RNA sequence: GCGCCUCUAGCUCAAUUGGCAGAGCAACGGACUCUUAAUCCGCAGGUUCUGGGUUCGAGUCCCAGGGGGCGUACCA
């Protein structure tokens, strides 16, 4: 059967909306038909999910972004040849438009009785099993369109994701924050302790890094006079993959002049509870059968106290690499620490092994040792710790924030210490950024910034066991036999390639 | 990176101790006037991830490689 699909199909509404209208009408078919040939009142379009052919009558189920709705075709109500062609020619997966009249079937199903059916586009490949769907994780990630089509819980995760980001944007806008964009291709990877991806700019014949954090650029923006700014965007870190880590992940960072970290503690608690309430309808999140309660005051834990209670190691006393290394190994917390050269890396390892897994309910973790973050402001009463906090939930860090270091002299000194560590073999230190120091020398107001891992928040809120389930197309290895080139391998064709777009 | 598990038809899964590779759904042909995963009849569908090995005989056992999952290490 030859179909000639049109490029456009005007509907009178989305499926869920039309279905509600039909249900509200509520007239059985006999009643509608008693008045003679019923007039078409609605036009809908969607993908054919079911097509049940019963001789002189057939029922189809269409699906669009709002839901599903049943349509029916009667041979007696249209040209028999057309009916036959549609009954035989339409397959699951095809897109069709249906113009028809409203009625309720004997079983109570709101249905659009077709006067005219338009095939909008055929599907040449078969749909996944209509009942079993797609379960294979590999297939779900590589062919996400099939996953979204047949797995409602996957659909819903991405709807929640979108709603959360949208809500967060509005909230920040309402608080007087301005959304800005800063470079992803940068000369120095800064703002976090992580290994970067590197790439090459041909015309400049120079290597660049994909940003691991927008932090130092956002501070430059604040220095420029925009007192409250935020950016929602991708960060890239050249690290391993697991349930709570992705190579590219979406981060919200904001900076507010004249705030300190305590202002951010209050702000993030307000924002997160409001976001959960608005997008999931509750401030309680189920996590493997444990109810995570966001709607209360979150406990505040002192970092070094927790580490001391969990391990017996007092980081206020143990201040150098070698002693700490000895303490860790002698207590059997870790054995192979031979290549770890920085105090910060050891502290971090200690905390992640012993403390973090026990932090299940939402909590604030504050006053990390000063060595951990070279961009954070020291505490006035105890300069060996930072005015900093993290929000930890279910063993996942979803927020990191601190009062910012805005003293250029101290900043330069602390970045120099990072450079020395790098020279000693720690490849996850920050790089020196002279331009950032210079910006600070021109003057920066006191401020506090905050970073929120959007993917993790969405995964927690939707019960997704892994971040790959809340990212549409997570990075995977090349599929066997896949001829597509990875983006990094793309070679421009001969000639000008710059007028694409 | 390392360790463990896994890969069978388009999809979801079977296949006894190593003994003829199967089912449901989808597809294809047909029947059917109220279906809801419609039902019924028929038909077809395979490099059992790839390559090697052991064996009279391998989906099954062994070796190497690839994809995926989980754990672990690094990171948020």
Helix-residue proportion:
25-40%
Strand pairing plus helix content: what structural class? alpha+beta
Low-pLDDT windows of residues: 483-501
Q: Give the termini distance in whole angstroms.
A: 38 Å
Number of helical segments? 14
Tell me what you see in this structure.
Strand 8 and strand 9 form a beta hairpin. Helix content is 31%, strand content 24%. It has 501 residues and is of the alpha+beta class. The chain starts with 14 loop residues before the first helix and ends in a 39-residue tail after the last helix. The C terminus is likely disordered. It folds into two domains: 107 residues, OB fold (Dihydrolipoamide Acetyltransferase, E2P) (Beta Barrel), CATH 2.40.50.140; 265 residues, Bira Bifunctional Protein, Domain 2 (BirA Bifunctional Protein, domain 2, 2-Layer Sandwich), CATH 3.30.930. Strands 6-10-11-18-17-16-15-14 form an eight-stranded mixed beta sheet, with helices on both faces. It has a five-stranded mixed β-barrel with strand order 1-2-3-5-4. It is elongated and about 90 Å long. It is built from 14 helices and 18 strands. It binds one RNA strand of 76 nucleotides through strand 1, strand 2, strand 3, helix 4 and helix 11.
